[in-house]
Write a structure and sequence with these properties.
It is a single chain. The protein is α/β, with parallel strands linked by helices and 359 residues long. The chain has 13 helices and 15 strands. It has an eight-stranded mixed sheet with strand order 3-2-1-4-5-6-14-15, sandwiched between helices. The longest helix is centred in the C-terminal third of the chain and has 22 residues. The protein is globular, with a radius of gyration of 21 Å. The two termini are 31 Å apart.
Length: 359
């Protein structure tokens, strides 16, 4: 199979879809791999490493898409890439189609088969291609928030952790999934007082067992409002239904926070649980202020540590990529329910129910 890996073009997105070691395994299995020139540089991989692994280098972005029966990316197609996949090709990447109807229409018009990383789900409910990036995003959300609180970054000069007593900095985490548990563990390790709000009873019990120094509560409006009021940092890893008018953290709650406090919302590609995270930001222009509170809503947070993120993502995706290449897309989707469940559309037809409903 011909496999192509374009460079990522989103703002400061330096991850790459395949590492040189991954390319070597694919080539050894009899496949042709083409990498866009310099696509791996931001993650620490030179073109020569891909050449040494048996891959080819293509200099033009559009030509890289044209070279692939199977195109492997990290992030979803940007608007300027909507027309680039070849008709009949397969795209394997993060997609987040819920808020991108134009991208979905473009995939259907080009008769592209699209398999979304974030929808690959195992029998136990785990998301093996989403969870590595979610762990990194949760960890980095706390470190980024801590930086934004520093005076040299325009913050109020508050340090997370290492301050005992009633003035110990408060961190609130909304959602106790992979993002939330990672954020809570990082904030707790820094010495902050951490409260996690999680809807699931079973998940709350698991968090209490794994994070004994963390307060874990149900997201009832009263406790959320009381805790948010004293928080210097809020990390959101939870979403609400697209049609819902209700948020876990309302504008009124944010208004009660201290001036210069920070909200880091990891759900930028979806509908987050915080009412004031009203728009996405970029690494170049990462923050805005609502109700006196700094909001950081960058959708590709793991992109700030591309070396680590690429290695983690590639380790998770390579077994699926090898299966798709070795067996062919059609047979793999017939035999692998985890990948079949991640199929958005095939050959111009919507497959996922929400994609059909969107259109």
């Amino acid at each position: 199979m011909k496999i192509a890996v374009p460079a990522e073009i989103q703002d400061n997105e330096l991850r790459v879809g395949i590492t040189p070691d991954g390319a070597r395994e694919l080539v050894a299995a009899g496949h042709a791999v083409a990498i866009e020139g310099a696509a791996g540089m931001g993650s620490g991989f030179a073109d020569q490493e891909y050449l040494d692994a048996g891959a080819g280098i293509i200099e033009e972005h559009a030509e890289t898409f044209a070279a692939g029966e199977l195109v492997v990316k990290v992030k979803q197609l940007s608007p300027e890439e909507h027309k680039l996949p070849m008709a009949g090709s397969t795209l394997f990447s993060y997609m987040h189609p819920e808020t991108r109807p134009e991208m979905v229409r473009a995939l259907l018009e080009k008769e592209v088969t699209a398999i979304a990383f974030e929808r690959v789900r195992l029998d136990d409910g785990s998301l093996p291609l989403l969870e590595p990036m979610s762990r990194i995003a949760g960890h980095m959300a706390v470190l980024i928030g801590a930086q934004l609180l520093q005076s040299i970054h325009g913050g109020p000069g508050v340090m997370l952790g290492e301050v005992a007593g009633p003035d110990q900095p408060q961190v609130v985490v909304i959602g106790g999934g992979t993002v939330g548990s990672s954020a809570a563990a990082t904030a707790s390790a820094l010495g902050a007082e951490v409260t996690v709000f999680e809807l699931s009873d079973a998940r709350r019990e698991a968090l209490r067992a794994s994070l004994p120094q963390t307060s874990v509560l149900s997201p009832d409006p009263g406790p959320v409002a009381d805790t948010i009021r004293d928080a210097w940092l809020v990390v959101n890893g939870a979403t609400v239904p697209e049609a819902s008018a209700v948020h876990v953290v309302t504008r009124e709650m944010v208004r009660e926070m201290a001036e210069g406090a920070v909200i880091v919302d990891v759900t930028a590609d979806l509908r987050g649980a915080i009412e004031t995270t009203i728009r996405k930001t970029t690494h170049t222009d990462p923050t805005f202020i609502e109700e006196g509170v700094v909001h950081y809503v960058v959708p590709n947070i793991p992109g700030v540590v591309p070396g680590t993120s690429t290695l983690a993502l590639a380790a998770a995706t390579l077994p699926y990529l090898l299966e798709l290449a070795n067996k062919g897309v059609e047979q793999t989707l017939a035999e692998n329910p985890a990948l079949a469940g991640a199929l958005l559309c095939a050959n111009g037809e919507p497959v996922a129910p929400d994609i059909a409903e969107m259109l």
